[in-house]
Amino acid sequence: MFADRAQIYIKSGKGGDGHVSFRRELYVPNGGPDGGDGGRGGDIIFEVDKGLNTLYEFRHNRNYKAQPGEDGGKKNKHGKNGEDLIIKVPEGTVIREVETGKVVADMSGDNQRVTVLNGGRGGKGNQHYATPTMQAPKYAQPGQQAMELNVILELKVIADVGLVGFPNVGKSTLLSRVTNAQPKIANYHFTTLNPNLGVVDLPGGKGFVIADIPGLIEGASEGVGLGHEFLRHIERTKVIIHMVDAASVEGRDPIADIKAINAELEAYNPDLLNRPQVIAANKIDAIYGESNTIIDDIKKEFEPEIKVYPISAVSGKGLKELLYHVREMLDEFDDAPTVFEQEYDPKQFFDNVEDPYTVEKIKDGLYSIEGPRIERMLGYTNLESEKGFVFFQNFMKENGILDELEALGITDGDTVKIYGHEFDYYK
Fold first, then answer.
1. 189-217 pLDDT, tens per residue?
2. Are 151 and 10 in contact (CB under 8 A)?
3. pTM of full prediction above 0.85
4. What residues form the annotated binding site for Mg(2+)?
5. Bond from prior residue into 304 cis (ω within 30 degrees of 0)
6. Where does the OCT domain start and stop, copy by copy (predicted)?
7. Domains of the chain from N-terminus onward
8. Which residues are annotated as a binding site?
């Protein structure tokens, strides 16, 4: 089965925590801090694999987690970095954030390898926090938290030309005749269950990639039939070929079909109607009589805005003129594939770990709070003013420091020491 859309959960590795330890050497009763740093967490990396052409694998495995970094150790031991997780996808895969639908990355063009989520940085060991006034810091920095994201993977084929039309108008026959593609062909609706790609080689001219976009019927933009599954594949194409059954073998009206398909394209993405279009009026070999009123009617309805080419995909009649006209239309564009710009950067929605602190019970009735974060807060807070003192109290409460004191058993009237300041605790 062809699979071109899947939802998965990705999570980078958490950074390892910094370690708190002190040197213990013979004849050195009070060794300095020697806590090592934590290792860096692994990244989530998406990489294009040219050998893949579906997202089928992601229908079964939906959770992808990179390895966390190891915690630091004593004797300045650095924690081991977590391994990156490389997720391989077909070229043309667009990665979107689930809630907003915004593009995180488009694995096309130069984007062959993209780091989507960074692993958390490792926390610093207590050796980094030694100062002349604090020579034995009992705190270390925690590792940065992992980044996590729910994403939708969408495969949008990379083709210069999109071949659209209702079932049984001859798209697969045309593709097999003008390219090296070998699509399965039969006379029933939805024969083609996946977009077929082929390369058109023109004598004396540049070739181009053409895609048979299947599943287009009325209501396709609303998900009727298989339409919604495949409409996304036309978003990268630069030129659209409308193929219609000019002989009305199944009794269809080719003019109504073209208008219906354009309505579906506009409903799905209005920008698609701005793409250059050409009409391939197929099955002219099945039209009887000298006069060709059907072709005349199609030309009268759509030309000169949209050029009409009568063709026979079976006999090859008219194909050369059609293909060279398409090449001329493509020459108005550069050769670079259409790549969707990033709209959502996960790093913007990720909070960094603050500097560490420690809450400690020294003895019954006496508690201590230390750390760079606390020291920095004291540096710009005027505790002599009532407003400044209330601000500092709120800081302690909002950051969970008061909860930690209570967990250690502090009671009303106990003393809390904070860098030369002493406070009586009252709940």
1. 444 456 677 888 887 767 888 888 775 66
2. yes
3. no
4. 172, 192
5. yes
6. 349-427
7. 1-158+338-355 (2.70.210.12), 161-330 (3.40.50.300), 358-424 (3.30.300.350)
8. 165-172, 190-194, 212-215, 282-285, 312-314
